[in-house]
Every structure is written in C-alpha cells, then in structure tokens.
Specification:
The structure holds 2 protein chains of 2 kinds. By secondary structure, chain A is α/β, with parallel strands linked by helices. Helix content of chain A is 39%, strand content 12%. Chain B has a two-stranded antiparallel ribbon with strand order 1-2. The chains are: A alpha/beta, B mainly alpha.
Chain lengths: 486, 95
C-alpha cells in the first residue's frame, strides 16, 4: 500500500507509533498530487513549502507525545474557507487575489489539532453549481472517468480524496454540495446539522442553508473530522451550543432495532437511473440484513423542494454577494469614472454567468411586488418541508434514499440548461431547507464503473446514528475500498 | 416571458450588474423558465402556514458590550484595491 492511500485512522496509528513521520506522509501526498493533478484538476492553490513546514511542526509535536488524531495528517480545504495568508478565491475572478487576514474557525481548529493543509480545492464559483464546471479557473475531472464531472460544488474536495491527493478534506453543503460530489466520486461525505459547525470564515452563499462538513475515505475518518470541526463558536451566532460527542464512539454501537424510513417520494421519482435505484435498494436490503428495521414513510412536499430552494438560496445569495463592490477587497475595475460605473463594471467582470443569474433571480424575487409571491411563499413551503421530516421522524430514526438521480455525467452535458441542472439536486436540497444532517456513503457502481452513493438523513443532531449505520454498512461491503485507477 | 428584458435590465441595475444584449436575452429566457417552474408552489395552499427563515430554534445570541480584539487596521486594508493613509479609496462621488 502506498502512503498516500492510507486513511486518516491508519496514518494516525503509524504516526503515533513513530513508524511514519508526517514529513514522509506529506511528501508522498504532494508527490501524488503532482503526478495526477494535470488530469484531475482538483486544486486552485497548492503550497508545498507551507505544507512541509506544517508537517515538520507536526513531527515535533508527535515526537513530544502531544499529538492528536489529526496531527500531521494532510488535508485539502474547499477554496471558500478562509485561510490566513493563503489565497481564498471561491473559484471566482472577483476574489482571485484575496488573501484572508484571518482563519475560519474550522481552520483554527484543524491547525490547533496539528493537521497539514496541502491546498485549496476547486469548486463551482461561490459554491453555485453541481458539477464544478462553474469554476472561473479550471475544470475538475472525476477520477473514476476523467471525461465526467466530479459533482459539485465541492468537486475538488471530493475528487482530491478519491484520487488520494489528501487523506480527507473539508467541503461546504448548501443544497447537496458535499453529499453529491462524494456520491459521484465514491467517497464519504457529511453535511452536519445546521449550526453544528461554525460558519465563521466560510464565504457566505446562502446563510440559512450553508454548512461546512467533511469528505473522507471512510466513515471512521468522517467521524474523526467531525470531532475536530464541530462545536459552538461565539463568532458565529447561528452555531448551536450543543455538546460535541466523540463521534467515533457511535460507530460500533448496535444497529439492531434502528428504524430506517424509506421515503416513497425519493424512490418513486421518474428520473432515477435504474442502476442507481438498484444499488440503493440493495444497500437498504444489506442494512435490513444487519438488523435495521425498514418502514415506509412519506415526505409529501418533496416535489416542491427544488422550487422553494431555488427561490430561497438565490435570495440569500443576492444579499450576501452585495458585499463584492470593488472597495474593500477583491477585484476592482479601474477603467470606471464614477462610483456607480465602478460597482457595475467590477461585479459584471468579476462574477461568472451562473453567479450573475442567481443574483438576478434573487434580486427579482425580493423586489417590490414580487417578495410575497416568491420569497414569502417559498419560506412557507420550507415550513411544510420541515414538518414533513418532523412527522417522518416520529416513525423512524434515519431516512435512506439515493443522493443523486444518476451517476456522474459527461463534462459539458448540462452547462446551458440551468433548470435541468437544478432538478438533479432533488434528493439533497430538503436536508438544507430543514437544517438536518445528511450523509453519502458509497453503495455500488454502475456498469460503466461509476460510483453510486446512498444518502442517510436524520433529525437535528443525529449525526451519530448516521455514522453508525454507515459504518456497519461499510463493514459488510467493500465499495469504499475500491480505488479509481489513474 | 415571465420576466421581460426590461425587467432583467432593471433588476441588473438594482443588483449593480451591467449586462450586454446577449446576456439580457439569455437571462430573460433562462430565469423565465425557472420562475415558471417556481410557480408550481402556487398549487399549494399555504394560508395560515408560518414562514421559516432559519431551520434551527435559536434565540438571540447576546454578549456583553465590551471591547475585544479586532482586526488590525493594516490587515483590514491589506486586500483593498486602492487605499490611502488608513482609508479605502473610491472614485470621486461629489463633483
């Protein structure tokens, strides 16, 4: 086994026994990155020297016996999480040269834990997209089939894990942006409960939906990363003061008697690829064989989730992105004579087409005369969607469904048809609207060899149950162990 | 179309964007299609349904009003496209 193929828990064991140094591990990961980055395109910014320096410090910490599980572990970070002194672009021209003067809370936590940050991962511009094709800088290719999309918006973070260019990564999920690329790249991804992880230093897209979460090679690593990043933060007034359990303690727990709801609306949908349906049904059967009891449940407002989401998210985005005005940071058009021209030229040249489309959609939906019909109505439907989940969770502990209706499609297939693209988010958006946790675990492959993910969702703060069910599933399957050949 | 080209131009102005003719045409069509789809929400009777703007129950997060560590002036200005003696510079507003 190559060093870069190690999981976090495997590497941590070797590091703590001093059978491996972080410098050896980090060098192996950097060499791997440089061997495959031309083909995968997972990173916007790499900083070998900084990573090796962090690895050196980690080795010192480890030799003094002061290491934690993440000390010396090379990780990748989605390029919308602020890293002090390291360029953070959001895959946008408007932030092309932005050097954050502070670290996001999750970065502070990872640095305190001694993690090594190898680079900033590619994404859809401002996390708007499901393919990573909306990056202003590069296209990321799915390691399983380089002609296909890795999913998005955290496509770089997922592809980097799948291609062993890091041992784990952080992404963000506003409507499926961790779970869907994890599914397409055959890795594990978790969107935590809203408020579980601090958003301080996360560049805002839709503040009531955004949540940072881990992408990992297996469920144990996912739990380890959750341990490191979770918790209340006084800097984020929407983070929740709920104690953080040791998520690894859930993994071995008994799953006999766990009740899984099978939401009929997520399985009866006409657009599901038969191979996805089959893989997900087999996964449900596997969990049943392990002692999980399955019940049918209904989430009757599912068909309205995409419409509600594509009002609410653009409305919040149009407000959040008002800050990019060419004054305080980021790109400025210097040809303009007046302040108004400067604003308009800066924003038109700085934002890509999908971002502009959503700003206009959001601004329109919030404008006088339309607010009640669009934002008001969508916010009421959001309540109905939350009530659906609350009712379903009276009968079950978790929900099982597909993550995405199809495996990864070809690069360029859907770039000019935004509505069709939005509709593919149907299984993931509702968790963001309701603020509940969701997770993707590898559960099969299509005949073309493309990974398929199983989605697990649960009530607020039930991450432990999701991890437990996923871990037991992994113990009897080997989908997560298969590697893309590059 | 659901959203006319004039609407797109007006909203783009409100959002401080400058669109060329092709972009206006394209956005009018694409956003119109999206808004048509959003209209499916009107099939639901939401009379008396409360609105949700935040999915987690939280009351206000208060803290004592005290001076705390803040970003150093130089750092706060470090990304400014144009700065001058501790301030952000912008094009002249008053003639």
């Amino acid at each position: 086994m190559k060093l870069y193929e190690l999981t976090i828990s495997q590497a941590a064991a070797l590091l703590s026994l001093r059978q491996l140094t972080s410098q050896e591990l980090t060098r192996a990961v950097l060499e791997r990155i440089h061997a495959v980055e031309d083909r995968v395109g997972a990173f916007i910014t790499l900083n070998d020297e900084l990573a090796m320096a962090q690895a050196g410090i980690a080795d010192k910490t480890l030799s003094e016996g002061r290491g934690t599980t993440l000390t010396g572990i090379p990780l990748a970070i989605k390029d919308l999480i602020c890293t002090q002194g390291v360029r953070t672009t959001c895959a946008s021209r408007i932030l092309e040269n932005f050097i954050p003067p502070y670290d996001a809370t999750v970065i502070q936590k990872l640095k305190t834990a001694g993690a090594v940050l190898v680079g900033k991962a590619n994404m859809d511009e401002f996390a708007m997209g499901s393919t990573t094709e909306n990056s202003a800088f590069k296209t990321t290719h799915n390691p399983w089939d380089l002609s296909r999309i890795p999913g998005g918006s955290s496509g770089g973070s997922a592809a980097a894990v799948a291609a062993d260019m890091c041992l784990g990564s952080l992404g963000s999920d506003t409507g499926g942006s961790i779970r869907q690329p994890a599914s397409h790249c055959g890795v594990v991804g978790m969107k935590p409960t809203y408020g579980r992880v601090s958003r301080f230093g996360l560049v805002a897209f839709a503040s009531s939906l955004d949540q940072i979460g881990p992408i990992a090679k297996d469920t144990r690593d996912c739990a380890l990363l959750m341990n490191a990043i979770s918790g209340h933060d006084p800097q984020d007034s929407t983070s929740v003061p709920e104690p953080v359990p040791d998520y690894t303690r859930f993994l071995d727990g008994d799953i006999k008697g766990l009740v899984a709801g099978i939401p009929k609306e997520y399985h009866a949908s006409g657009g599901i690829d038969p191979e996805v349906a089959e893989a997900v049904n087999r996964a449900i059967q596997t969990l049943q064989d392990l002692g999980v009891r399955c019940v049918d449940v209904s989430l009757p407002h599912t068909e309205y989730a995409v419409a509600a989401y594509y009002v609410i998210a653009p409305c919040e985005a149009s407000s959040n992105l008002a800050r990019y005005d060419g004054v305080k940071y980021g790109y400025r058009d210097k040809t303009a004579g007046t302040l108004m021209e400067m604003y308009r030229n800066t924003r038109s040249k700085g934002f890509g087409p999908e971002v502009q489309r959503r700003i206009i959609l959001g601004t329109y939906s919030l404008s006088a005369g339309y607010y009640d019909a669009y934002y008001g109505k969508a916010s009421q439907v959001r309540t109905l969607i939350m009530d659906d989940f609350a009712k379903a969770f009276q009968h079950c502990d978790i929900l099982l469904s597909p993550v995405a209706p199809t495996p990864a499609f070809a690069i360029g297939d859907n770039t000019d048809d935004p509505l069709t693209m939005y509709l593919s988010d149907v299984f993931t958006l509702s968790a963001n609207l309701a603020g509940i946790p969701g997770m993707s675990v590898p559960c099969g492959f299509s005949t073309k060899g493309l990974p398929i993910g199983l989605q697990l969702m649960g009530p607020h703060f039930s991450e432990g149950n999701l991890l437990k069910a996923a871990y037991h599933f992994e113990q009897t399957t080997d989908f997560h162990k298969k590697k893309a050949i590059l | 179309m659901k959203i006319s080209k004039e609407d797109v131009i007006h909203v783009a102005y409100l959002a401080r964007l400058e669109l060329d003719e092709a972009a206006v045409e394209k956005f009018s069509y694409q956003i119109g299609t999206i808004l048509d789809y959003v209209d499916t929400l009107n099939r639901l009777d939401t009379t008396g349904v409360s609105s949700t703007s935040h999915a987690i129950f939280l009351t206000n997060a208060f803290r004592d009003d005290e001076i705390r560590k803040h970003l150093d002036l130089e750092l706060a200005l470090s990304n400014a496209p144009e700065k001058d003696d501790g301030i952000f510079r912008v094009p002249r507003v008053i003639g």
